[in-house]
């Protein structure tokens, strides 16, 4: 019985490792590429991919032989997203804010030492050619990340910076002391900013989202090109709207609005 359990667990792990090979950069893969990425033998990969194809978790192109993720994977992702209380509480609020501001609005959930985008809505002044939902991003190089880091105990922030984070541009904060200054500023005014720290020509304003217990579990940001979102100029009005939207989501999650009143005083 124990051997059957081990064998079943191994099969599941192998199947998941194959599905995890598909990324935005590698949306279509051959059996040989899956073998190289997972270290599994060709017969094993072929057999498991055929099973996943029958279950519609992957689809094979009859002409090229390439595999891509199938409709069953899409369905599971949609179910997971719709099952998120943060997504359900934020979707309409974020969409309305994007319409008012005319720039992109994103909501992301904290996940360990990174975060995952749950939804994004385009503004007329800052359209995107891709969807953000499901993507991950680093905490130290984004406004959303700073908003999330601002709620972490100091020991966890120390742990994050123990291995020097990646520098994406000359503006990326990779020094722990420099980040503490940025986090103190974020806590005092209720929002974080980012100017070309992850990518050139981009900026954003982000505010934390709290759960019933007051813990920062997610964040909301307004972002766009520098030509539209100039954070060197006065931006208090945009910041206020971002904070208000994030607070509205927090309240929907059970957080008491009275706890966030001090955030507006800094503006």
From TrEMBL:
<dbReference type="Pfam" id="PF09339">
    <property type="entry name" value="HTH_IclR"/>
</dbReference>
<keyword id="KW-0805">Transcription regulation</keyword>
<dbReference type="InterPro" id="IPR005471">
    <property type="entry name" value="Tscrpt_reg_IclR_N"/>
</dbReference>
<dbReference type="InterPro" id="IPR036390">
    <property type="entry name" value="WH_DNA-bd_sf"/>
</dbReference>
<dbReference type="InterPro" id="IPR029016">
    <property type="entry name" value="GAF-like_dom_sf"/>
</dbReference>
<dbReference type="InterPro" id="IPR050707">
    <property type="entry name" value="HTH_MetabolicPath_Reg"/>
</dbReference>
<dbReference type="GO" id="GO:0003677">
    <property type="term" value="F:DNA binding"/>
</dbReference>
<keyword id="KW-0804">Transcription</keyword>
<feature type="domain" description="IclR-ED">
    <location>
        <begin position="72"/>
        <end position="255"/>
    </location>
</feature>
<keyword id="KW-0238">DNA-binding</keyword>
<feature type="domain" description="HTH iclR-type">
    <location>
        <begin position="9"/>
        <end position="71"/>
    </location>
</feature>
<protein>
    <submittedName>
        <fullName>Transcriptional regulator, IclR family</fullName>
    </submittedName>
</protein>
<dbReference type="GO" id="GO:0045892">
    <property type="term" value="P:negative regulation of DNA-templated transcription"/>
</dbReference>
<dbReference type="InterPro" id="IPR036388">
    <property type="entry name" value="WH-like_DNA-bd_sf"/>
</dbReference>
<dbReference type="InterPro" id="IPR014757">
    <property type="entry name" value="Tscrpt_reg_IclR_C"/>
</dbReference>
<dbReference type="Pfam" id="PF01614">
    <property type="entry name" value="IclR_C"/>
</dbReference>
<dbReference type="GO" id="GO:0003700">
    <property type="term" value="F:DNA-binding transcription factor activity"/>
</dbReference>
């Amino acid at each position: 019985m124990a051997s059957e359990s081990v064998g079943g667990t191994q099969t599941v792990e192998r199947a998941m490792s194959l599905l995890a090979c598909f990324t935005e950069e590698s949306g279509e893969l051959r059996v040989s590429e899956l073998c190289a990425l997972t270290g599994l033998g060709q017969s094993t990969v072929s057999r498991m991919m055929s099973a996943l194809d029958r279950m519609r978790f992957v689809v094979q192109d009859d002409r090229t032989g390439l595999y891509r993720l199938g409709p069953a994977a899409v369905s599971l992702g949609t179910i997971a997203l719709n099952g998120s209380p943060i997504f359900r509480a934020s979707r309409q609020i974020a969409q309305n804010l994007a319409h008012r501001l005319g720039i992109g609005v994103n909501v992301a959930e904290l996940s360990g030492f990174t975060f995952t985008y749950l939804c994004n809505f385009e503004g007329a002044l800052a359209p995107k050619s891709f969807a953000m939902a499901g993507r991950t991003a680093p905490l130290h190089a984004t406004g959303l990340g700073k908003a999330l880091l601002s709620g972490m105990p100091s020991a966890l922030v120390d742990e994050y910076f123990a291995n020097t984070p990646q520098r994406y541009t000359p503006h990326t904060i990779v020094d722990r002391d420099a980040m503490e200054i940025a986090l103190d500023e974020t806590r005092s005014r209720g929002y974080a900013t980012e100017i070309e720290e992850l990518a050139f020509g981009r900026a954003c304003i982000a505010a934390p989202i709290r759960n019933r217990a007051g813990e920062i579990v997610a964040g909301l940001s307004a972002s766009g090109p520098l030509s539209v979102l100039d954070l060197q100029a006065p931006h208090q009005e945009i910041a206020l709207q971002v904070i208000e939207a994030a607070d509205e989501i927090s309240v929907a999650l059970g957080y008491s609005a009275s706890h966030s009143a001090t955030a507006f005083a800094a503006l």
